[in-house]
């Protein structure tokens, strides 16, 4: 079972390393980080770099994982990445994304007519790609599984692991990882956080991340 995790400059670390930790515990599984040119790829937290192999090293993976990142929007016109995604998806059992990685799936034409999720800041941007935005932590539509922001990639990977290796193995990995979130504040989703915090963080993300892809697309069409 070959799992390919697609990296690009400016990916978010946990988007990639969370699923990696889960899939690395798949018996007989082989996880490969890939990127356009191979070599070291820098995360949006620039102190972290991950070594990758070129896209040609994983032409037909069984599972595709596309993390999100602060600079995902910069790669939505990268035909090398998008072409690899289309080809890999055609033969993969599962094509998955975490956070704004869903925008790359959308740009590759893989979300048209599908239910999907992504980070709450970009959720409505999924409509640009013909997808139906769903405010859930993990959304499965056929052979495509999308996860909400950052930490939701662990939930997604555990779900896919269960489909591949069975519920017993997935439960065991869940326990070994001691993945049992108990945050100090119940503010980890838009639905649970106070409205004033959601508004404040939306404005903060707009300053640091920039306009959403939906806003950029609407401006380009105006």
General description of the model:
This protein has 222 residues and is α/β, with parallel strands linked by helices. The protein has a single domain, classed as Class I glutamine amidotransferase (GATase) domain (Rossmann fold), CATH 3.40.50. The chain has 7 helices and 10 strands. The chain has helices at residues 13-23, 79-91, 101-107, 152-165, 167-176, 195-209, 213-221; strands at 2-6, 30-35, 39-42, 49-54, 63-66, 94-98, 115-116, 132-133, 138-141, 144-147. It has an 8-stranded mixed sheet, with helices on both faces. A two-stranded parallel ribbon has the order 7-8. Strand 3 (39-42) and strand 4 (49-54) form a beta hairpin. Helix 4 runs antiparallel to helix 5. The N and C termini lie far apart (46 Å). The model has no long low-confidence stretch (mean pLDDT 96). InterPro entries: Class_I_gatase-like, DJ-1/PfpI, INH-QAR. It comes from Conexibacter woesei (strain DSM 14684 / CCUG 47730 / CIP 108061 / JCM 11494 / NBRC 100937 / ID131577). Pfam families: DJ-1_PfpI (PF01965).
Q: Could you tell me the CATH topology label.
A: Rossmann fold
| Percentage of residues in strands | 15-25%
Query: Sheet with the most strands?
Result: 8 strands, mixed
Shape: globular
Radius of gyration: 17 Å
Widest sheet, order of strands: 3-4-2-1-5-6-10-9
Order of helices and strands: EHEEEEHEHEEEEHHHH
Counting DSSP E segments of at least 2 residues, the number of strands comes to 10
Low-confidence stretches: none
């Amino acid at each position: 079972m070959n799992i390919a995790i697609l990296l690009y400059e400016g990916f978010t670390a946990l988007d990639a390393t969370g699923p990696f930790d889960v899939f690395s515990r798949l018996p007989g599984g082989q996880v490969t980080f890939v990127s356009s040119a191979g070599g070291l790829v820098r995360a949006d937290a620039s102190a972290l770099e991950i070594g990758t192999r070129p896209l040609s090293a994983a032409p037909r993976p069984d599972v595709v994982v596309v993390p999100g990142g602060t600079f995902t929007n910069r790669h939505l016109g990268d035909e090398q990445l998008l072409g690899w995604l289309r080809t890999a998806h055609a033969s993969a059992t599962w094509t998955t994304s975490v956070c704004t990685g869903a925008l790359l799936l959308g740009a590759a034409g893989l979300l048209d007519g599908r239910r999907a999720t992504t980070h709450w800041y970009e959720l409505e941007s999924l409509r640009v790609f013909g997808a139906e935005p769903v405010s859930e932590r993990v959304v499965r539509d056929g052979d495509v599984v999308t996860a909400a922001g950052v930490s939701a990639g662990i939930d997604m990977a555990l779900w896919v692991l269960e489909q591949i290796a069975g519920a017993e193995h997935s439960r065991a990995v869940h326990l070994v990882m001691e993945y049992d979130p108990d945050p100090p504040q119940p503010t980890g989703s838009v639905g649970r956080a106070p409205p004033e915090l959601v508004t404040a963080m939306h404005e903060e993300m707009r300053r640091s991340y920039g306009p959403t892809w939906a806003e950029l697309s609407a401006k380009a069409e105006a």
